[in-house]
Input
Amino acid sequence: MDDFGEYDDYEWDDWEETNLDNDDLHETGLEDLDRQDDELWMTDFKRNNEDDTSTKRKRETNLLYTTGSSVQLKSEHMKKLFTENYNLNPNDGPNSRNLFSRLDVVDKYWLTFDNVKVAFIDRNGNYFLSKNTSNVQGLKDFRTAFEMATEEHRKTLNSITEEETGGGDNTDAISNDVRDEIHRENIDDNIEFHDRVLQLHRDGKFTEQETRKLVGITRPKGKPEERIKYLKIEREKIKQDYKDESDPERKDIFREALEIIEQNIDDAKLEMYERPESEEGIHRVREKFGEDTRTKFEKFTVWARENLGVLSAIAISIAGIITTVVVAGKKTLVDAAKGVGAVGKALAKVAKAALPVLVPILNMLATILKWGAQGLEFLAKNLWLVAILIATFIYDYYKKKKENFLFHLSMK
Output
């Protein structure tokens, strides 16, 4: 049995896992380009637009400025120009990098491509393609590059995240949560399949060569692209084995092997931040988004702003704290070796900047987390209720404090 390999020495670090704390999350491509000069670029953009006499256009340029970086600003300019639902990212691939490297914003509100003015914001705050007939070829080149980058983005994992959550600041973090959780589940499925194959080999159902082939699909070597190529070759061989087989137990294993191959191809795609290849894989990812705590937080922020009035800002902040703690706690439970202290670290960060009124709340969260998995499950399922209750408590606390202050002031 040892000849076929055990999972005690499984290469758990084949993936670069992303987790928990915002400091450890992957930096997005929108923060990667020209970081050193970005702040200066943004400052110049704001300064150049300060004297714009068009109120509506100035409102739009001010909104573009608040996107946070030059690349995000250009991305938002194109999004409003094309009313596009996808958030283009220069790290999506070569077409996206090519597009962003050739863009600039000049003369306050003009978007350029290869130094040709291709789009602008009019006095009413509307976005239009350039109407200069001498720029026809430049406009054509821009549209082609934009469409190629958009198609490339649609193939990424983040595009599914945006479809499920509507975008937002947590897009990359949510994608990382989902891909890491699916990866861990795939490891478990591979181990279970691996053990079943070895048992059937001991029972005389599979030859040594057949066993090696089946075990091999659970731990393919190489980079994601190499693993995908290998798995697709093995898939065709096993499809034929399944078709030719009459023994029920062997046929069942071949069917299961095809499922394992599909999962591992999808897993390799996710490792590259691409959409899964199979429909089942895409369905699985969408289900994970529905279960993800950060996804629920994004939806809560929208609901809170529309329904909670003066409590919304407080409730969103509290929900953000709980989200950070729950994600950190889950990581600790599923990967203790790497995640030890993650919950404490998350709470410590909050506590360091917390107002005195938050201290008993943080103590309450710490107590709930001592329940382990049950505590995390309680917080995840009741995130919005807990956030609203705490927000109400804080609001009432400061309201009474203000009333007492005014009362004592009036008595003087």
Q: What stands out?
A: The first strand starts at residue 103 and ends at 106.
